[in-house]
């Protein structure tokens, strides 16, 4: 049975001086550090390609930060970027807000906290995982068509959709503590498939050298 790997790449650091939860808002670009992160990932993937890896398919969320993260990899590997809305960021009631304890405790937000396991303040975890896994399976099939056994695809997405997709692949509950997500900026969460079944999940941080001091925004 052919083995295919689909890498879920989180975008790099975003220029966000006001510290808002940007969600699906348009025109949030990578910071200077974010562009450097994207370049490091591209170098990492190009080296793997030079060493024999068959990286044949590149997909990105339609949001600006994902497209900008994908661009250096497209140039390094000579691939076109396919845009897939299924791997976009999660919907969130707090989009555009500065999420803080003071903001969350305002009475107008209370109706959105009735079920934190779903979560009730945004797109359900299961819905996110389902749409991303559909895109992953399509990318897996396309990589097989383009490169055969051992081919690989890269999908540039966002922290929460990547994390819940990983937990689905590992047969773990989707509810979780956002502070414990293993999905740093410009990290790779790699799903290894035999046929259409996930046989392994791997994680790496090609841009780890740039993580110290990087901006953080509350998770969706």
UniProtKB/TrEMBL annotation:
Top-rank lineage group of the source organism: Bacteria
Transmembrane segments: none
Gene3D superfamilies in the record: Phosphoglycerate mutase-like
CDD domains, per the entry: HP_PGM_like (cd07067)
Cellular-component GO terms for this entry: cytoplasm
A molecular-function term among this protein's GO annotations: phosphatase activity
Protein name, as recorded: Histidine phosphatase family protein
């Amino acid at each position: 049975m052919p083995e295919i790997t689909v890498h879920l790449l989180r975008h790099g650091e975003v220029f966000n001086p006001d510290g808002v939860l940007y969600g699906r808002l348009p025109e949030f670009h990578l910071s200077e550090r974010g562009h450097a992160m994207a370049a490091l990932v591209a170098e990492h993937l190009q080296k793997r390609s030079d060493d024999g890896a068959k990286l044949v398919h590149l997909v990105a969320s339609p949001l600006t930060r994902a497209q900008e993260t994908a661009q250096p990899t497209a140039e390094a590997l000579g691939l076109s970027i396919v845009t897939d809305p299924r791997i976009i960021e999660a919907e969130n009631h707090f989009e555009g807000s500065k999420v803080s304890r003071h903001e969350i405790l305002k009475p107008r937000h209370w109706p959105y906290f009735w079920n934190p396991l779903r979560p009730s303040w945004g797109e359900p975890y299961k819905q996110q995982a389902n749409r991303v896994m559909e895109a992953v399976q399509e990318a897996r099939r396309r990589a097989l068509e383009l490169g055969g056994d051992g081919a690989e695809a890269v999908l540039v997405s966002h922290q929460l959709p990547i994390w819940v997709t990983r937990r689905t692949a590992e047969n773990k509950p989707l509810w979780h503590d956002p502070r414990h997500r293993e999905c740093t900026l410009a990290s790779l969460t790699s799903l290894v498939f035999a046929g259409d079944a996930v046989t392994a999940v791997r994680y790496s941080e090609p841009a780890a050298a740039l993580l110290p001091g990087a901006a953080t925004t509350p998770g969706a």
